[in-house]
# Entry
Amino acid sequence: MSPLNEVASKESVAAVTLPKHVNFFDTTLRDGEQTPGIALDVERKVAIAQELDQLGVDIIEAGFPIVSKGEIEAVKAIANCGLQAEICGFARAIQKDIDAVLSCDVDSVLTFIATSEWHVKYKLKMTQETVLDKIVTCIEYAKDHGLLVELCAEDATGTSLDFLKTFYKTGVDAGADRIMLPDTTGRCNPRVINAYIHALKKVILVPLSIHAHNDFGLATANSLAAVEAGAETVQVCINGMGERAGNASLEQVAACLLGFHNISCNIKPHLIAEVSRKIERLMKFHLPLNAPIVGKNAFLHESGIHVHGVLAHKACYEPMDPGFFGRKRQFVLGKHAGRHAVQSILTELGLHVTAEQEEHIFRRIKEHGDQGKKVTDSNVWDIVKDVLHLPSEDFLTLKTLTAFTGNKITPTSSVVLSVRGEERIHTASGVGPVDAAMKAIEKGGLLEGIKLEEYHVDAITGGTSSAVDVQVKLRDEINDTEASATSVDNDIVMASIRALLTGINKLIALQRFQGKSKKMV
# Structure
């Protein structure tokens, strides 16, 4: 019988008293950094730790010190930058790993060794008795040197339940302060996880945490199941990062604990979206559009039926309040849009239209979507300007652009702009020609109060001469308005600058038509 069937058959899924409070142990800087393609320097690791601390994470696993000198430097820097969270280092059950953790001035160590039959026999080439001896020696050494110890059985859910109980009891007797149950390969379902936690809570008195992987898409559900069985801590990664399919998502687990069980935690939900975006940029890891809570589409509505329902009462199609998580409800227009969405967006733009003009705008938007085209903010704005006969003169126009780049020169760009008919020349350098060109436009205060929030590039065709579609999202922080714009060109620099200028001109036009008095330029 496999360990999973053994647990499911022997242990009933019993109701327990839910914990009143759940701690969040964040492993973004260790397991999250093990996401293929991700590598962080010291500066970015410290910045991410500071964001997690602001969010309210209780324990930050800062890294795996033994892997490199740079990792030791980063973990030590995090441990010494005055954070409120407990700082933890990761270590195998080996003295040199513990020594590396100790050199980083952290508060605690999470130490592990594999326990499943195939890991012990084939990977470690040990006996179960040797595994137990190693963990006792390691824990006693760490405790003698003043560390809090959390004990992990790698591949716990592939381990015989009897040996797993013996392993954790041995560790606790040796001084382990906490234990962690990892579903290392994400093979479990919530019923099995509940049974595991229930079985361990019968014999272990120290606090227990769950570390769930998402190979079957069940990491959040398994984390909840563990809490429902009595686990006091959930181990998570912001944005669900991690090896293979990732780890349990901090934002999803927090939302479920607060929304389903009303269990308290120290996570500040209104900061989740902001911290998610910042860490997404720092780790250069792009979220799926439909990611729950933090994805771009999570609170986006296009369908006319849905928009009408949400406008009538938000509970019709929104199971949670966007503002609770630092998000905003948004309506987008396309072939599925209804009149209520058009009315709402026109109202947001501060534009008053007749019934005939509204019908014309609505029909034009539908026609655009029926052609298989994405209806962007720029498309809608162009339609509105055309129907309402609004002035189309651009405030900012590009006359010339020159960009220089190479392997031995700093990328530099010069732009000649017409600003209200006045010619201006600006030069700037950057990390590449696109960055340099954008900074040249920013130079001289031309983007006062405007923040580039999103920049995205898609190749439309194949090959090195591919046309690219550049999409930008700008925010006018002075007047509290946003604008998106796109541009297509074979030259990525030109496409980027044209999209940027289109967005700026749209924000300035909105400022004029809404009667805003604060200048941006």
User: Anything to note?
Assistant: Residues 516-521 have pLDDT under 50 and may be disordered. The two ends are 72 Å apart (CA to CA). Residues 62 and 75 are 5 Å apart (CA to CA).
